[in-house]
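I'm curious: can you give me some protein's one-letter sequence along with its backbone structure tokens because I've never seen that pairing?
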Amino acid sequence: MNKSSLHDYRLFGLRVRSEVQLPELFPATGIVGPDVSIRLGSIAGDVGPFGIEQHGDALLLTVPGIARYRVRKGAEILIDPVADTPERNVRLYLLGSAFGLLLHQRGSLPLHANAVEIDGQAVAFMGASGAGKSTLAAWFHDHGHKVIADDICVVGFDGKGEPHVAPGLPRLRLWKEALEASGRLTSDYDRAWEGSEEWDKFEVPLSAGLVADGERAFAAIYLLQSADEFEIKKLTGARAAQALIENTYRGRTIVAAAGPRLHWEACMRVAEQVPVFELRRPLGLARIDQDMVRLLSQRSERASDEAER
């Protein structure tokens, strides 16, 4: 991984200036100072096992065999890659776990969720890995809805204190089964992890016209759960806030990065203003069409009821 001229990108509502080319991101235009700087360089100290540790006034993420990432004050990431490591694999952790640390340092609320645009607003689907977040986002995308975020859904608050979702990575990451079920060919896409034919997850880049171009008001959150039958149930109070706490992206790093109090307060603010639902449905693709049509129908009925009040 070599240094090149500086490149400006936009991600999670932030302007990123990087010595490393990040082809996954859209370029940023205009003469504006960066919110985040990404550099290449050596990081002092012995290489330890996978994990996060305090490193002076920064946090150090170590990924053996890939790179070390020094994340400082929510504004800087220094990358020390292992020689001959595929650049795609270095970027995978940079735009994932390392950025997760940085977002926590900035006091943002990154949810482990995908978000799509429905009726001009953000609707998020959160859950554990394998719960079907990206599969649902791909379904909405293929049915005419813009993608706002994939895997990391960053929630912020505007001047009035109302929550919104900032655009994330302009791509979907799909398992082979979901990719092929959507009519796509694996031969047309790169594997998310370079160097292993056993890693059957693929990167599906999206064009600028198919992703949200700015922040969207936060309309609803669905917590994905596996069940035999389709059901949507609203969560309220502490249960809604707890769902957000449990599905925060890289939540185990909060204590080191920012402290639990700010995180808890952000989750409470979102739960008070954004409806949180539990979406129960069978895993897999057999019923996805009918399930998502039912979800959209229920959302339309709920919007009509609220308009009549």
